[in-house]
Design goal:
Strand order of the largest sheet: 1-2-3
Largest sheet: 3 strands, antiparallel
Order of helices and strands: HEEEHEE
Distance between the termini: 33 Å
Strand content: 25-35%
């Protein structure tokens, strides 16, 4: 399976136009980003994005840490470092992040 890293999504997914028009594309509200040590069949770490749809359905998407980091590097290269004003506290296995803005 190939994953596309798209630096600017505007107009990048014309194949979804019919699905959007038919109401078949749903937007989930992101609630967690987590690492899964040995989450990949290869034993490498994966990253999971967890969210909820408006109807309460939970959405779980998983990608390798490698792809996640490559995407982050590409986005940072294109748009700059947005973490400059971030502050975080690590509590046990969780990082509580806060930043100005959004």
């Amino acid at each position: 399976m190939n994953v596309r890293i798209v630096l600017d999504a505007d107009g990048a997914f014309p194949e979804m136009a019919e699905e959007i028009a038919a109401g078949k594309v749903k937007q989930a509200k992101l609630s967690a980003v987590t690492a899964l040590p040995a989450g990949m069949q290869s034993g490498r770490t994966s990253v999971a994005l967890i969210g909820k749809l408006e109807d309460g359905t939970t959405v779980f998407m998983e990608v390798s840490l490698r792809v996640f980091q490559m995407a982050a590097a590409a986005f940072t290269g294109r748009y700059g470092d947005e973490t400059g004003d971030a502050s975080g506290v690590v509590v046990g296995d969780e990082a509580v992040l806060g930043w100005k803005g959004d």
